[in-house]
Amino acid sequence: MTDHIAETIRECEKLATSEKLDFSSHPTQEIDEGKKSEITNKIHSIIPQKRGAIVTSRGTPLPLSGRKKLNLGNTPILIVEDEERPTYVFPCRLGETYYDVNAGLAHLRANLPDLPPLSGMNEKDLSEIIVKNPEILENGLRGPRLELDSGAGIVDIVLIDKNERHVLIEVEREADDAPLGQIIRLCAAYEKKYSLPTGSVRGMIACMRARGFIQDAARRADIEIKIINTNEK
User: Considering the entire predicted model, what is its pTM?
Assistant: First the structure.
């Protein structure tokens, strides 16, 4: 057993003792196929709003592997039950917020005996950050207007830059082909509807992540991508 795992178990035991809860641990080598199936079924029984993402992706370990098998190779898994009903599993990801087991323990310490839903950054949260502080995208942006009809769809946010150009913002968790095509279409329709010169409207995708080839494609299409670090709101 690694020092990290041993320390995690000690923290679980301390929390269980202080809150008068039952706690048991199961070393990986003692978990047979029947136990793996039982644990996997418990994880799947947690409602998605509370368990979040549970399949490993983007380099962060989660309870299930990419092949949907129980992931016991590189991370401890903590299942929290309320009267034998699974309520949380850690690690998990809600929106863009990743909870490892230590973060899960912190959530429990802060809330027990209650078990409120976990919170996670999503597109609505990102929109609120931009509306409150447009300059997180660029200095001089002002005047946010929300959900404006372009004539070919709704623009999430419209801002004005320091040169009086209209900036149309598509808010996404991840920039990919769909929002890139969407913002190009919205800009063209917006210029036509409001009788603005072709190419005078700036298109921008505000997101939490974007792969390199999407950023390359956006530059080719003259669309800006702004990646917002949601840990620095």
Answer: 0.64
